[in-house]
Amino acid sequence: MGVRLTWHNNSVGDNNVVYRSSTPIDPEALPVPLAVLAANQASYDDLSAVDGETYFYRVALVRGASSALSDELSFEVLPPAVGPFGPLVSSLAPACWLRLNETTGAVAYDSSGNNRNASYAVSAESLTSAGLLVGDDDKGIVLPPTLTPLVLSSAPVASGGDWTFGVIVRPTSVPPQTALGVLLQLGANGTGCPELDVIDRSGGTFGFRVMASGTSQLFASPSSWSYGSAVVVYLRQSAAGRHLFVNGAAQGNTTGRWGSFTGTTRLGFSRFGADAYPLPCGLDEVQFYGAALSDAQIAELTDAALGIL
């Protein structure tokens, strides 16, 4: 996780020198400096500190052959707090789970429920460090307006069966072109394939609508949210029909199932005729489950996600 040190010098010097040791530091036998910094620098981030270890630190202000040594501080380095959302998703064995791996800068594509054991090829420039979540072990997948949509080469769930799609999304502005933003187009070459859209509404707000093949609206959310809001969305198909939930609240449903789909699945784009443009929004924790999650499971996932937003 790292350690941040800050200090204040009461006099002018040539350098600040940071010392670190795994045992108490003897002022008469200082270890090799961890860092030598400019005299006007008053903080240092020790990013090499290892989680679970305890370190002792001192800072010296050096001027010529003289130095003034600080009191000693010790820290046990703890890993960042991880909310229950990630473990909960794993326990439900998603067919596909996309989240940004902050270590490698790649999106994890996982079919086993353990989210970091495979990589999904996405160009590095399509990802930024701006995240939606705080307290979980990842950053957000963010698609700025200058970049291409996120594409899966095939549908992650079977056509005609029960399935659930989940995502944390933050639309930041009105979708370009026709003011239609597509969060999900599942199997784009199918007949009556599933589609979930972000729609612009008055007063700087947005809503959602559920479509078949982008041409037939099944229903729209009665509620609206302000641009910049991060919301938790779940779309489910089951024998009882098609249901939409946003932040845990039911936002519409209809009976029946979508038609067949087998082809490319796209996430986060704005459609203008046959052309696709990037959607100005952030996506995170994209989940596909090959089963219809219950209302209770969706509520539990939503509560866990809202707890780390």
Automatic annotation (TrEMBL):
UniProt entry keywords in alphabetical sequence = Lectin
- Kindly indicate where the leader peptide sits in this chain: none
Entry annotated with the keyword Disulfide bond: no
Coiled coil: which residue ranges? none
What Gene3D superfamilies does the entry give? 2.60.120.200, Immunoglobulins
Q: Name one GO molecular function term.
A: carbohydrate binding
Give the top-rank taxon of the lineage listed in the UniProt record for this protein: Bacteria
Can you name this protein?
Concanavalin A-like lectin/glucanases superfamily protein
Q: Which organism is it from?
A: Ectopseudomonas toyotomiensis
